[in-house]
Amino acid sequence: MTAVDDARSLYRDRLHALSTASVHQHFDAFLDIPWDEPEYAIVPNDPRWVLPDADPLGHTDWYKSLPLDRQIHIGMYRQASMVKVGLQFEQILISGLMQYALTLPNDSPEFRYSTHEATEECHHTQMFQELVNRIGIDVPGGPAWFRKIVPVLTVFAARSAPFGFFVGVLAGEEPIDHMQKGVLRAGSVGHPLVQRVMQIHIAEEARHIGFAHQYLEHKAPRLGPFEKASISILTPVIMRLLCDVIMKPSKQMRRELDIPDEVVDAVWWDSDSSRKALRDTFGDVRMLAGELGLMNRVSKRVWRALGIDGRPSRYRSEPSFG
After folding, report:
1. Where are the transmembrane segments (predicted)?
2. What pLDDT shows up at residue 185?
3. FRET pair for 204, CA 20 to 30 Å: which of 26, 103, 117, 316?
């Protein structure tokens, strides 16, 4: 066997392992969350909805100075809003995966895992929407441009530029995964429904992120010089763009909750601590970009200009470093 054959065989084995894991360890939104248990009930004036210090907004003096009932309402709104944005991203991802699967030939190693991932993402959308419904706040999720333009771009990329599509997959998955792991590691999750949703999402997203990493690693050697140069520059742009959609409160949320502009600016991303948090979010992606040969003199400047440069992770999901 040649080195190319060995790499292909290893790639197939890794995708098969991911598929097998999805068969034997998966979750159902309505079986694995005790929605109707008394401890999980969503009731008025529940202090478990107060945002923890691990949340960027919850850490601010402005938020801590508010009356308890306002802190609770803002906490519920913020959790519902982030979940709704995550739901919308999952819906877009599912449509992209199905478009991508349409291009695959028989015996493709990617087909089975793509459909496993789409199945799990469908459960995530059910889980997220159920949480939003029970919180009872009519949040819009992402900005209008995201909901209108990104689905169209995703369909095009999934069929015509799958390498770029899977970069976009990571751009949507990495910020949420990094944030949720940070909150759980800090032991500061308030309401148990939020905690259980995070636990399930993290467990299955680990496989989804792993698939994107494996795909990009396998396909990167086939990129031509122009493609490689282009994607090296587009990668940090896509990462930062989707990170802001996912992490920053929408204009509607800021208006409805009367969050001062200076608070939003400080938290996203004008203060030293928030800029560090932004850089830390992409340690795994910088590691991957380096391994794929997508870190060059020009692209490094783009990472720096967007405020998401820094040292790469030494291994996937390495905790934030100083």
Report:
1. none
2. 83
3. 103
